[in-house]
Automatic annotation (TrEMBL):
GO biological process: cellular response to oxidative stress
CDD domains per the UniProt record, alphabetical: GSH_Peroxidase
Family: Belongs to the glutathione peroxidase family.
Organism listed in the record: Paenibacillus sacheonensis
Any Pfam family: GSHPx
Entry protein name: Glutathione peroxidase
Record keywords: Oxidoreductase, Peroxidase
Matches recorded under InterPro entries: Glutathione_peroxidase, GPX_CS, Thioredoxin-like_sf
GO molecular function: peroxidase activity
List of catalytic residues: C36
Length: 186
């Protein structure tokens, strides 16, 4: 059975990176975009990186242009945008597909292990995203694929998916879950 550590991805600088390099770390894997209503989440992701990086949290950003073409630039544009606007210093990977036939193996692995459980429609952003997808892309709600930018997967130190957090979940609201995984023995 394939594990997350058997996979690799291309960094935003164009180098192949094995996810085995992150063995023993807690990972927060996120599909991102520069022109999305959720783009300000980069700020909170960077805060988590700064707060917990020395304790073993690694945030891995995977830009994707699959949702409303909200990541139209080249990899160099994405990297510049993230650094200039949000001071991002956590690893970014090359633009990639995260859903559909061409979905990157990392996201196929994650979505197979963490099904889509719906949006919190008691919150305005969850209600809005659910309504938008119901109207424009209803077929997307019927499977476990990524639904929109800034879907987040929390992975424990053993490489197991510990949680899936949809686009509407603010990264800082995940702090307690992150702390619990960081406190697990290596």
């Amino acid at each position: 059975m394939t594990t997350l550590y058997d996979l690799q991805a291309t960094t935003i600088q164009g180098k192949e990176q094995s996810l085995a390099d992150y063995k023993g770390e807690v990972l927060l894997i996120v599909n991102t975009a520069s022109k999305c209503g959720f783009t300000p989440q980069y700020e909170e992701l960077q805060k988590l990186h700064e707060q917990f990086g020395d304790q073993g949290l690694r945030i891995l950003g995977f830009p994707s242009n699959q949702f409303g073409e909200q990541e139209p630039g080249a990899n160099s544009d994405v990297q510049s945008f993230c650094q200039l606007n949000y001071g991002v210093t956590f690893p970014l990977f090359a633009k990639t597909d995260v859903r559909g036939e061409d979905a990157h193996p990392v996201f196929r692995h994650l979505t197979e292990r963490a099904p889509f459980l719906g949006f919190n429609t008691d919150e305005p952003s969850g209600k809005m995203l659910h309504s938008f997808l119901s109207e424009k892309l209803p077929e997307w709600l019927g499977d476990d694929s990524i639904k929109w930018n800034f879907t987040k997967f929390l992975v424990n130190r053993r490489g197991e998916v510990a949680g899936r957090y949809e686009s509407t979940v603010e990264p800082l609201s995940m702090t307690a879950d992150i702390e619990a995984l960081l406190s697990d023995a290596k």
